Amino acid sequence: MTNYKKRMQTAILYIFGILTATITIYPIIYTAVFGLKSPEEARVSPAYAFPEKLYWGNYLYILKESEFPRYFVNSVIITGTVVVVVLVVTSMAAFALAKMRVRGRHHLKMYFLLGLMIPMQVCLLPLYQTFAKLHITDKYIGVIIPQVAFGIPLSVYLFVNFFRFFPDDIIEASVIEGCGIFRLFSQIVLPMSRNIILTLAMMRAVYSWNDFLFPYTFTRSKDLQTITLGLRDFVGAYGYTDWGRTFAAVTVTILPMIIIYFFLGKYMVAGMSEGAVKG
């Protein structure tokens, strides 16, 4: 009876796992397949129907004739800069808060946590007024600064929780051997923090890549628009939408994050455990 119960529990878990995976993967497959429909078929065929003939014209248009490659490059520049800046700033700040005797470090931790409680929408108007006076609207930096600022609190929190459990013996032995603080941090601490670094890099990349609010608020020129804003190009006059090209554009938009998650997913699970559960 015990073995029967175990088999039933295992079967139920597998069923739930398969259902969850299906619910998660189906929209992605549906989007990619719909992008393979010709304009005529996209208008008249049922939405759930598989295309009678694969039509690659939508994807070729996205990659060769539309403005999407430029939007893609803009998103890569902004996302890459945000990820690098957030990781560099928060890793050093968190290590100091977790391991160094910094006066008032406990109060500083609370200040960082307060940043998690402030809705970004509340800051849009004062940010826009400030950026307009500084003449940094409609520039990369006008999008990068708020994304970095709102990415710092959570990153510091997870880094601090990870560094709290970093072995003090390793730090003390390195100091005794004459290792300076920057060498200790860059050559010993960071290589041993791979999981949490890759986790936060992926989290920041997904957030920045998918962000619509800040690029929409702080950019006007099409030359600086990101890939999320570029999706609006496929909505024509009177609400007419070329659904084949739209779904192809959405597929191109989400593909980089899917690839990143495919290769870094295991590190993200481990990093979240180290940065959150231990804390």
Give a nutshell description of this structure.
One of its GO terms (cellular component) is plasma membrane. The chain has 13 helices and no strands. The protein is mostly helical and 279 residues long.
What is the name of the CATH architecture? Answer: Orthogonal Bundle
In CATH terms, what is the fold-level topology?
MetI-like fold
Q: Averaging pLDDT over every residue, what do you get? A: 86
Order of helices and strands: HHHHHHHHHHHHH
Number of strands: 0
- Share in helix: over 70%
Strand content: under 5%
Determine the N-to-C terminus distance.
Answer: 40 Å
Give a structural overview.
Helix 7 packs parallel to helix 13 (243-277) and helix 10 runs antiparallel to helix 13 (243-277). The protein has one domain (73-277): MetI-like (MetI-like fold), CATH 1.10.3720. It is globular and about 75 Å long. The two termini are 40 Å apart. The model is unreliable at 275-279 (pLDDT under 50). The longest helix is centred in the C-terminal third of the chain and has 35 residues, at 243-277. The protein contains 13 helices and no strands. With 279 residues, the chain is an all-alpha fold.
Keywords:
279 residues; mainly alpha
What is this structure's SSE topology?
Elements: H1 2-34, H2 39-44, H3 57-65, H4 68-99, H5 105-114, H6 124-134, H7 140-163, H8 168-176, H9 181-189, H10 194-210, H11 213-218, H12 227-230, H13 243-277
Helix pairs in contact: 1-13, 3-13, 4-7, 4-10, 5-7, 7-10, 7-13, 10-13
